[in-house]
Amino acid sequence: FSNAVNVSMSLFAANFLRNLSTHLEVNGEAPDVCFKEGGYLFLSSTNEGAQILSENYDLQTKLGANLKLLKPNELKQKFPWLHTDDLTSSCLGVTNEGWIDPYSLLIAFKKKAQSLGVTYFDGSVVSFEKSNDKINSVTYESPDKQLHKLNCGIVVNAAGPSSGRMAKLMGYELPVSPKKRCIFVFHCPDKSVTSSPLVIDPTGVYFRPESSGNFICGVSPPEEQDFDATDFEVDHDLFEGTIWPTIASRVPAFEGIRLVSSWAGHYEYNTFDQNGVVGYHPDIKNLIMATGFSGHGLQHGPAVGLGVSELICSGKFQTIDLSPLNFERILQKKPLIEKKYRIIKINY
User: Fold this and answer.
1) What is the mean pLDDT of the chain?
2) Which of 108, 146, 311, 348 is 20 to 30 Å from the Cα of 220, by its Cα?
3) Angle at alpha carbon of residue 56, lines to 220 and 201, rounded to 5°
4) Cα radius of gyration (the chain)
């Protein structure tokens, strides 16, 4: 990240995960979300990309991140299985970076909320009732096709990929759409690829280890092919034509891999600037938004959840100033842009 607010939220999440038993323990039982602190490794193959990595490094370390810039020869020494001849620089997260079991974290949040008195209703929202500058109630349809009306004091639009559709039901436009992302699991019989972090190639293709010689990988499609998603069909051509050739070039041991499984999901993609939208709506006085994170919502979820609770309880952000993510920037056409270090184009 090149924006301080995103870096601060990521650091908050790392600390939150380290102290998960304190935050989400229920009846003496602490959740295990399998936090693997494997690190993220960003690669650059141009001088411009190296400069951006260096600038991001300066900001992130100033805010408390533990990173290391590695020259190609240093990178080769640390990860001998990696092809580095075309690289100009890299940045490795030494601590506080890795991956977790997201479903376990979701369930842990839900159980903790229920233990504190939160009630969940199963259904699909069909309408909102508004008067003047407030939302008074929400109507949803339960699985048995019955309609139910809930009066509301505050509404939080945290509907993920559906939050743009929810916004239309409330009478405003929110540039958040569902975008399909495909994940592929492959097995590498070559045991030379050890101690791998999550590697982000200059093309944007990424991979990381799972277990027993398995890895997961993926890539975002080019903008002109990134259509709003209506299904969960996996694009297998993406693996065969784009991902596999790229990772086999970066890691020669991946030439002999075998595809194991795959799945697809939807990002809550902010088409305006690919950053989250957090805060009150300027005209709908009891509406708060928490959406549009475009792929880093899990990483920023703990900080956003805290920030929204602070807004509800005290009317302002207290722990982290999330105001740069406000909705007004969209109305004013002032995007919050992240510097893109990936400037190598690949054919899809």
Assistant:
1) 95
2) 108
3) 35
4) 21
